[in-house]
Fold:
Amino acid sequence: MISKFKAVVRWSTEECARRGLEPTTENRRAVLGRAVQLIRFPLMTVEEFAQSAAQSGLLTDREVVNLFLYFTVNPKPSIGFNDNPRCSVAGKELVVSRFQRIDGRWGYSGTPDRIKFTVDRKIYVVGFGLYGAIHGPHEYQCTIQIIHCGTGKVLAQNDTSFVCDGSSSTCRVSFREPVEITPGVTYIASACLKGMDSHYGTKGLRRIVHQSASGGVVTFQFTYAAGNNNGTSVEDGQIPEIIFYTNNS
Structure:
């Protein structure tokens, strides 16, 4: 996200020079036109925004203030910038659900719920479906991650929040950008929630063959993630859904 933003700033400065204009905020905005509204500032972390976009001179003072408010308060103000994670134009979102039954209650004490998974073809993970509170509405603070199991490297992370309504329906929590998942490689899906007790899933499936309406097939294998996992396993726990797409789903 930062590299793309810096490329936009660089281009606007070069375009001003090509047109014989001073690279002021007004002139750079003028050469960019409506494209400014397409920059996904809300998908940056507050640290990334503070260190780059907020000091770039591309945004007005009011836009900088509104974006800082967007990062730090709820309900979030209207900001006029795209806050939807970028998704493949070729891929329709799909959901794999690993539990056959829902129960309650599941507690949280600062330890992430984690489960390992592998797939047999390339997919792109958009986010997770997570269980919410038994009694709602309730807001959770949440950190989701995808970790490469072999190296322990965190491939994607989003610190965010979501509001549930007290039903057993799952709540969508997305990464800032889709995460490419390589077939045959083991990954850890991780979600660390802060909030009241929630629903949880039981009768979990170890192997799921997911077939889309277009005929695409992806086989998921779920395995136990040893260590700090808040009790989540193949059989029961959190992270009931992985939201994903393929290039031809």
